[in-house]
Design a protein that fits this description.
It is built from three helices and four strands. It has 102 residues and is an alpha+beta fold. It has a domain of 52 residues. The strands form two sheets. The chain has a two-stranded antiparallel sheet. The protein has a two-stranded antiparallel sheet with strand order 3-4. It is globular and about 40 Å long. The termini are far apart.
Length: 102
């Protein structure tokens, strides 16, 4: 049985993904990353994983992690969010929102 995270009971930590498409994507990721924590950007080719693209987004790290640019946003994500923010920077996405003073 999956364990609940002690700090957040809104999600479960699972040993293996339950969605049928994930094992294929995990195998692709593992093959590309080899012995590294993650594969280098150049190793990931969206054309290698066409059936997954509608459910994925890819980010570019900008200015050593001070910002991120949405390189690719899958159509199912766009549909769920109700907008396509491809090409936008995180810093732009909510610039019209007041800062949280918590």
């Amino acid at each position: 049985m999956p364990a609940l995270d002690a700090d957040n009971d809104e999600y479960e930590i699972v040993d293996e993904p339950g969605a049928p498409m994930l094992p294929d994507l995990v195998a692709y990721w593992d093959a590309k990353r080899a012995a590294r924590l993650a594969p280098p950007r150049a190793a990931i080719d969206p054309l290698d994983i066409p059936k997954h693209l509608q459910h994925l987004f890819m980010l570019d790290v900008v200015d050593s992690g001070r910002d991120f640019r949405l390189r690719l946003i899958g159509t199912e994500i766009v549909r769920g969010l109700g907008r396509d923010s491809t090409g936008q920077y995180f810093s732009e996405l909510f610039e019209d929102q007041p800062a949280n003073s918590d």
